[in-house]
Amino acid sequence: MLFRKVTEEKLDLIAAYGLWVLCGTLSLILISFTRATLGSGDTIEHYLIARYAFEMPSLLLDHWGKPLFTACSAPFAIWGFKGIQLFQVINVALTVRLTIQVARYLKLKFLFMVPLIMYGATEYFQSQISGLTELFFALLLSLSFYLWFKNYLVASLVVTSFLPFARSEGMLMIVLWTAFLIINKNWKYVPYLATGNVFYGLLGAIFKNNLFWYFTENPYAIHNPNYGSGKWYHYLLGLLNALGVPNYIFLWLGILWLLIALFHKPYLEKFRYKSFIYFIILGIFVGFITAHTIIWVTNIHVSFGLLRVFNAIMPCLAIIGLIGINGLYLILSEIKLRSPFAIAIKVKELSRGKIKIGFSILLAALVVGFFFSDSPYAPKIAKLLYPARVQIAARETMNFWNNHCPDSLKTRVHFCYDDPQIGLYLSEYIPSFNPFQPNWRGTTWHIKNHQLPRREGYYIWDAWFSVVEGNLSYEEVIRRQDLELLYISPYKDKAIHPIAPLFLLFKLKKEPLQ
Fold it and tell me: 240, 317 in Cβ contact below 8 A?
């Protein structure tokens, strides 16, 4: 029996790593062929901050850009957007690898489901072609778990202490870890959770003359009515879109099983590291969804209710889902093995093996089948290969500018725009262009407040950022007398704006510098 048990565990682990390699290879193929960027805003802005971080070191302490993400992604970003996509593939691969090990330490069965759950999560898989920060945050989270179970407690807490500088939700992680340490009477380890804040605080004191810059320069602590709010159940239901149908079922099975175990001691005793599972893994999920729900309902901070934020805690979601799978298997095997029919034909051991094999095949088929299905909740790989309409529109708008602007002016003009995509394409046309230098770039705010240099310039209005961030409507911009309309994008998208084209290109009616 012992040999058989060890063999099953090894086979499970081999299958897990085999699927990990297979899924990672699929991701590499995806980024090799894709021309998409998964979004035109945050994903491009994060890339650009990382891309110009070595040229402008002040960007390494840009709060919105997430300093630790910028520092770690910058070496990849210098190779272009493909570089940042490679960085994301590496993030996911390492996160899945570490999560497999965490599940193994927790003595969970069906380890092969970890790569299927994580790569099969719709938003998580798609984000590999983006420049978003959630995937890097998830890597740090899984690393902190792994180090904890390897008994490198100080290293684990130090990694956790840097989470706020990968994403703002990291402060929640520090609070949860602090409570966990206090409850388990590990007081002496609590100070290590301040390491990240001390490190970046000192950098802020040196380069920003502000020791508490992380708190005083919070870009989210504002109120913008253009962002909006929604219902309290937005994230509870929206997780279906983020995770896909199978993972959504596994998640709630896991939560149900954890709740049942609290009131059924035999089930609870099957968990290893019970305190960690409930206070950290489940606690992070509950705290995460609660915090984002409060922000979304009350609109106390800027939020669009984006579901991709759950990519940041994908290791927790995968572990909870795996717990749900283990709980379901336990119930099914007990029902089968205790049934009168099974006892009558005397095939208890055979039934256990058949149940496990059949259950494993069913789980894998369910996740893989859904991943390649036509379900609206499944990732559409074909669509991930091609640029979105707004990306095409931005490219064509700047192609028009590039073809019609005299070459003699291209290094002496001033640009005003809000959509980061414009900066991405300008950096291709003008090697010396830097979207973070004020002598190169202004925004809609500068247009509205007539704060522009007296030089040749262009304004690129877009139907989303110029409206939401710049508060300049389509009706208002086309009536401006100080703007000469040069180009109207033929593309429209009612989901972005009911009537406006996606982009308008204007020439600023300003006299050039003499």
Answer: no
